[in-house]
Automatic annotation (TrEMBL):
Protein name: DUF2165 family protein
Keywords associated with the record: Membrane, Signal, Transmembrane, Transmembrane helix
InterPro entries xrefs: DUF2165_transmembrane (IPR018681)
Transmembrane segments: 60-88, 109-129, 141-159
Signal peptide stretch: 1-24
Entry-linked Pfam families: DUF2165 (PF09933)
Amino acid sequence: MAIRYAKIILTLALAAFASMVAFNNLTDYGSNFAFVKHVLSMDTTFPGNAAMYRSITTPWLWHAAYALIILGEALCALLLAWGALSLWRARHASGVDFNRAKARATTGLALGFVVWFFGFMVVGGEWFLMWQSHQWNGQEAAFKFYMAILGVLIFLNQADAD
């Protein structure tokens, strides 16, 4: 039972994290909007880099990208909370049923990985060259987030027996 409770608690902890990130982005919209604006406009990358054709300088596209990030974070939070509830309800069930109850949490974890790895490392870090910016580089924070998510995803999906 301890392993099942650990899986529930870790899933719930990541649900709380994703909830707080989405909540903070909504209630303090401007702080992280500035981050998105600078990353997409590539205005703090190395001067004269050959990839400036990738920059986005249209304000409505900055807002759309930020909305997509917030939506991904909020959906991740909801799926993880729903997943934790499903796991809680199945905690005394057979191993087969408990393993089946992992689907929503697994989906939430996969979405979180997409947001923080694909969104921040692939798109932000490499396409928009966020790594070149000393002020607007979120790769280290994103790395911490998606590694925590990946660790829980691996642990959660270890098969549970009766």
